[in-house]
């Protein structure tokens, strides 16, 4: 074949492939499933997903069953990464897609599953935590089940963290464990509060630690305009306030949180009205689709995500 024709054919086929991927993601990550999963994870019966009142463990059982049904394997000999928090035995849920090969490059996709439990006083005692952070969890589950259908050249770890609300305890535990095991971790993408559209528009998020790496720029190449710079993130030092941070500290790699909570778009933060009915599920699903697309693209193209010099 003529070399120019060959190049043209390759270019066309890769564009076509990309487009097809997006339409496949769109048809598979369905708004009804997103709504169903987030509704279960934030229902009153899970009592605000606290380990003290055992509600957390019900949520964890749901996630483990979801992993089993979707062909997502345990990273360790079970799905639980056990640790103690104020003398209570609790655990992160950690899955992996396909076979985990020790030396292979690894990415981690995470969100915290725990929330702040119940309040004895007040008309509605359950802190449902639909936005904080059932919205992040449903993203990890939906993206994980999509990715689990294919073979990748990377290890993909899915982590649902415990005890974030008590000071990132679950992610500190897993980060130091993975560090000790010399896991070849390349980057971490953490989801936190993406259930309500940002004031500036729909299907948009910000990244904490925007300038720490090229992640925002690389995402915007795949999904133009998806990631915005959010000045308050820096002002409030959000980079250090979610489960991305322990991995950054332990591995010195790009590790950032993706969020759409802009402090003005949602008045139910840590409030008992943080419920599904107050969220924008259509926008949440759009964010999940965009995220699944950029992640699969990164994996396909072996995109290098690296720390910026500082
Ligand atoms: Zn949170």
Structure write-up:
This protein has helices at residues 3-28, 31-41, 55-69, 130-147, 169-180, 215-222, 231-235, 244-251, 281-301; strands at residues 72-74, 80-85, 88-97, 106-112, 155-161, 185-191, 205-207, 227-228, 255-259. By secondary structure, it is α/β, with parallel strands linked by helices. Helix 5 runs parallel beside helix 8. The longest helix is centred in the first third of the chain and has 26 residues, at 3-28. It is globular. The protein is built from nine helices and nine strands. It has one domain (19-301): Aminopeptidase (3-Layer(aba) Sandwich).
Number of helices: 9
Please provide the count of β strands: 9
**Intertermini distance:** 48 Å
> What count of structural domains?
1
Mean pLDDT: 94
CATH topology: Aminopeptidase
Order of helices and strands: HHHEEEEHEHEEHEHHEH
Shape annotation: globular
- Using the 3D structure, state the CATH architecture: 3-Layer(aba) Sandwich
* Low-pLDDT sequence parts: 12-16
Instruction: State the fourth-level CATH superfamily.
Output: Zn peptidases
Q: Which hetero compounds are present in the coordinates?
A: zinc ion
Supply the CATH class: Alpha Beta
Radius of gyration: 19 Å
Strand content: 15-25%
Helix content: 40-55%
Structural class: alpha/beta
Q: Report on the biggest sheet.
A: 9 strands, mixed
Helices, strands, pairings?
Blueprint: H1 3-28, H2 31-41, H3 55-69, E1 72-74, E2 80-85, E3 88-97, E4 106-112, H4 130-147, E5 155-161, H5 169-180, E6 185-191, E7 205-207, H6 215-222, E8 227-228, H7 231-235, H8 244-251, E9 255-259, H9 281-301
Parallel strand pairs: 4-5, 4-6, 6-9, 7-8
Antiparallel strand pairs: 1-3, 2-3, 3-5, 7-9
Helix pairs in contact: 1-9, 2-4, 4-9, 5-8
Bound molecules: zinc ion.
The site of zinc ion has 6 residues, from helix 4.
């Amino acid at each position: 074949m003529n070399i120019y024709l060959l190049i043209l054919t390759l270019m066309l086929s890769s564009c076509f492939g990309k487009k097809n991927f997006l339409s496949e993601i769109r048809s598979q990550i369905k708004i009804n499933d997103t709504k169903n999963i987030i509704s279960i994870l934030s229902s009153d019966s899970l009592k605000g997903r606290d380990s003290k009142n055992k509600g957390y463990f019900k949520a964890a059982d749901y996630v483990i069953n979801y992993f089993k049904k979707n062909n997502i394997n345990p990273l360790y000999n079970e799905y639980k990464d056990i640790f103690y928090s104020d003398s209570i035995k609790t655990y992160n849920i950690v899955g992996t897609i396909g076979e985990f090969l020790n030396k292979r490059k690894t990415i981690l996709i995470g969100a915290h599953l725990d929330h702040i439990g119940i309040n004895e006083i007040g008309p509605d005692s359950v802190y449902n935590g639909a936005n904080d952070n059932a919205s992040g969890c449903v993203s990890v589950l939906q993206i994980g089940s999509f990715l689990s259908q294919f073979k990748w050249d990377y290890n993909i770890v899915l982590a649902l963290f415990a005890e974030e609300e008590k000071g990132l305890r679950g992610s500190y535990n897993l980060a130091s464990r993975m560090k000790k095991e010399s896991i070849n971790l390349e980057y971490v993408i953490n989801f936190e509060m993406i259930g309500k559209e940002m004031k500036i528009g729909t299907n948009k998020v910000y990244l904490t630690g925007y300038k720490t790496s090229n992640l925002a720029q690389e995402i915007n190449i795949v999904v133009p305009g998806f990631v915005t710079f959010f000045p308050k993130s820096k002002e409030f030092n959000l980079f250090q306030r979610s489960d991305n941070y322990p991995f950054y500290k332990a591995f010195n790699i790009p590790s950032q949180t993706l969020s759409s909570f802009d402090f003005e778009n949602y008045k139910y933060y840590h409030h008992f009205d943080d419920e599904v009915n107050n969220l924008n599920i259509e926008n949440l699903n759009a964010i999940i689709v965009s995220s699944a697309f950029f992640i699969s693209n990164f994996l396909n193209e072996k995109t290098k995500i690296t720390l910026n010099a500082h």
